[in-house]
């Protein structure tokens, strides 16, 4: 399966700093999505970017997609302690195929 | 988590027993999904259903079974054939049957085999 792979596996930053997480994948996609998971909870959808889009913003989140490099990045600006969570990318391939999730990046924001 | 409920939150099972995990949604979504998550790992797809009375195997369907008799319900049975069932199970749903939409997740059920 075309599982996305996040990098780094874990990231620790100070409050107020920016956090950048990357996702690489192997085959062509229809869209790529980012989700957040607080410890022991379900996932929450953050943003969806389609294959013909290059950048999307949502509040403090900025997502880029480079289909030529098969990679995406998630930037969280001015991070807060409440941003501490695991962040997953998920890819949806062409046709009628379900999302495939990566293993996630664990972000710790220290107050 | 709103709109999708999973029960129970914690479940303990003895080896050799079947258990059923409940997933209900009131979002009028067509598609529903079951995932398994192991510690420090991503989500792996067990089964998904795009319409009532139809479902497809995901990447790790062996030892699991599902039904989709109603649009709002998608129960998962973990059978005794599943050799390592201890995990966190997540149910999700999405608007259309086309699988391209964002997914909405329930709060999860943590299953422990004693």
Helices and strands, with pairings:
The complex is a heterodimer of chains A (111) and B (114).
Chain A: E1 5-7, E2 10-14, E3 19-24, E4 31-37, E5 43-50, E6 55-58, E7 61-66, E8 71-76, E9 85-92, E10 100-101, E11 105-110
Parallel strand pairs in A: 2-11
Antiparallel strand pairs in A: 1-3, 3-8, 4-5, 4-9, 6-7, 7-8, 9-10, 9-11
Chain B: E1 4-7, E2 10-13, E3 19-25, E4 31-37, E5 43-51, E6 54-57, E7 64-66, E8 76-78, E9 87-94, E10 104-105, E11 109-113
Parallel strand pairs in B: 2-11
Antiparallel strand pairs in B: 1-3, 3-8, 4-5, 4-9, 5-6, 7-8, 9-10, 9-11
Can you put this structure into words, describing what you see?
The complex is a heterodimer of chains A (111) and B (114). Chain A has strands spanning 5-7, 10-14, 19-24, 31-37, 43-50, 55-58, 61-66, 71-76, 85-92, 100-101, 105-110. Chain A is mainly β. In chain A, strands 2, 4, 5, 9, 10 and 11 form a six-stranded mixed beta sheet that branches. The mean pLDDT of chain A is 94. In chain B, strands 2, 4, 5, 6, 9, 10 and 11 form a seven-stranded mixed beta sheet that branches. In chain B, a hairpin with a 5-residue loop joins strand 4 and strand 5. Chain B has strands spanning 4-7, 10-13, 19-25, 31-37, 43-51, 54-57, 64-66, 76-78, 87-94, 104-105, 109-113. By secondary structure, chain B is mostly beta strands. The model of chain B has no long low-confidence stretch (mean pLDDT 93). Chain A binds chain B through residues 1, 3, 30-31, 33, 35, 40-45, 48, 88, 92, 96-104, and chain B through 1, 4, 33, 35, 40-45, 48, 50, 58-59, 88, 90, 92, 98-100, 102-108, 110.
């Amino acid at each position: 399966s075309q599982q996305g792979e996040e990098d780094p596996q874990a990231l620790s930053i100070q409050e107020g700093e920016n956090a950048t997480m990357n996702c690489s994948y192997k085959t062509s996609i229809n869209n790529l999505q980012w989700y957040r998971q607080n410890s022991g909870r379900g996932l929450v959808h953050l943003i969806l970017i389609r294959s013909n889009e290059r950048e999307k913003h949502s509040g403090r989140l900025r997502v880029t997609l480079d289909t030529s490099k098969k990679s995406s990045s998630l930037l969280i600006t001015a991070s807060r302690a409440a941003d501490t969570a695991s962040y997953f990318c998920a890819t949806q391939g062409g046709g009628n195929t379900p999302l495939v999730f990566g293993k996630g990046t664990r972000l710790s924001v220290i107050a | 988590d709103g709109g999708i409920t999973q029960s129970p939150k914690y479940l303990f099972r003895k080896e050799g027993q079947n258990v059923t995990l409940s997933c209900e949604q009131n979002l009028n979504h067509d598609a529903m999904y079951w995932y398994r998550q192991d510690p420090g790992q991503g989500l792996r797809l067990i089964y998904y259903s795009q319409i009532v009375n139809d479902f497809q195997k995901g990447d790790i369907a062996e030892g699991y079974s599902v039904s989709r008799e109603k649009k709002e319900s998608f129960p998962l049975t973990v059978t005794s054939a599943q050799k390592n069932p201890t995990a966190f199970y997540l149910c999700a749903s999405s608007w259309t049957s086309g699988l391209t939409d964002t997914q909405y997740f329930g709060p999860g059920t943590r299953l422990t085999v004693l």
